[in-house]
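Ligand-bound model needed. heme C.
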Amino acid sequence: MNMKPLIAAVFAACALPAMALEVTLPAETAAYRPSDLPGYRLVQQNCMTCHSAQYVETQPQTSPRAYWDATVKKMKKPFGAPLRDEDIPLIVDYLVKTYGAERGSATPVAAAATAAPATAAAAGAPRSVDTLLGANQCSACHAVDKKVVGPAFHDVAAKYAGNADATGKLMQSIRSGGSGKWGQVPMPAFPQLDDADLKTLATWVLSR
Ligand code: HEC
Ligand code: HEC
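Prediction:
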């Protein structure tokens, strides 16, 4: 009598429920890719309880921000992940920039529309406020006249009005990110922006 099929069947019966309940994948594929973005810490805290990072790894790399937003919201409802609403944009930001359509490119939208200005920007030509706001997703978290994830630019301008070194302070804030000036939610750092870009943005914010 051949025992092999029976052993295989018993093994499969034991292994399957265990896989469904526990995260037991090899460390390399199970872990989220390290990043300086604030969402990295949040996915480690919030996204490892039910499944590993492998579900994220296997999503199409072309997935846009809206796709990640819908996916993370689905984890909260109906799947029941205990996510705080204010953390969701930061998680989405990390996911789209690490696994999705915005990987490694500072100018995804603008570059797709017209290749020539992107090359000019790389060569050091000044970039417009609209390009900078769009390419760096500032507008995902900020609006001029109302609080979104970050403060309204109008309120930032009002707070720094009359401050002698307002431009320098805001250039530093945008470059380094951080939290505590407007609330507990952190602003991501933008180390890839050079002084010219930072000055364009800071000057524009202060004029709102
Ligand atoms: C409460 C449990 C739970 C938590 C916490 C959780 N997920 Fe999920 N996740 C699920 C379930 C259930 C599925 C669906 C599995 C399936 O269809 O086989 C899933 C599937 C996915 C998928 C596959 C695509 C899809 O739409 O099914 C991705 C990507 C994903 N999760 C990302 C995340 C991220 C990012 C987080 C943290 C923000 C997270 N998950 C937290 C339960 C969870
Ligand atoms: C993921 C969300 C997010 C993105 C993207 C983002 N910000 Fe912010 N921003 C915030 C939050 C949150 C704060 C408040 C931080 C605090 O309380 O200290 C903030 C604060 C600021 C401030 C005020 C800083 C100060 O010193 O008072 C400025 C100016 C600003 N952001 C500009 C920008 C610009 C320009 C971009 C794009 C290059 C950008 N932000 C991208 C969330 C974001």
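The pocket of heme C (ligand 2) is lined by residues 89-90, 93, 136-138, 140-142, 149-151, 156, 170, 173-174, 178-183, 185, 187-188, 190, 201, 205 (CB under 6 Å).
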